[in-house]
Here is the input.
Amino acid sequence: MAKLKKKYTEGASRMYTTRNRALKKLQVSLQDFRRLCILKGIYPVEPRSRKQANRGSTKLTTFYYSRDIQLLLSEPLMQRFREHKTFLRKLQHALAKDDLTRARAMDRQRPTYTLNHLVLERYPQFGDALADLDDALCMVFLFATMPVGAEQQLSQDVAAECRALAAEFQHYVVHARALRKVFLSIKGIYYQAEIQGTPVTWIVPYQFSQRVPDDVDFKVMATFLQFYRTLLRFVNFRLFTGANLAYPPALDAAMDDGGAGLGAFKVAARRVEDLIARNDAGGSEELPARSDADGSEDPAVAQRMQTLGAKIQAL
Here is the structure.
């Protein structure tokens, strides 16, 4: 006699899973599940037959791919979220007992995490990151001009970082002469640049006082912003190093305070080959040689520095 197949082990009921089943499997809260899905790039899907995917039920629900939920089980961020929740409970316990000394010590040891591995996972090639850079630029430029406040989930440090990332990207576009189109609209200024053959379009809000709407979930936007900041840092570093520029670019504080804008950035070469070529061409900038304790130059080091350019060219 053939073995009987169990229900809901094949087909759409196994390919898709509901959000409630995903929460029960991952043992996380709904807020942490949304953050994980945003950071990992996992979005709801619409099955062909909702009744088959929901195991015969016609109740309205949200579906995800089962393989995506399975990948979340091995995500390191889940452990970081649990550690952060444990830290908050201990901190609240110390504050409830008015133990300020312990609370300050715990706050200095607040657990942190990075999203670098997610950027490398979602964008294995640099061209993939450039193709998905439009939303990141729009979000960063938006929060760079927004007022700081708890309602917007925006701190002073995050706003300053957004302004720095936006200025660095604009600095590269000006240096590479990559700007192609500009369009003025009621929403803001649209820019389109061509970076390594990929068109990148973003919008910059006008420098007016903004009215923050009440019907926007800034917690979700803050999660997107957290990932886009990490992505834009990677992209800026790759663009600057590819253009033979030092990253982060040097900023003249006096010119920046005077409202110079992008003119406050100083263009500087990064690679040693350029310094050697400039030195061979008779430029004034020379490679430093190590000196002895009495201030005299080491002859052996000086001789090795003279042959460094030929060695690099041979490699």
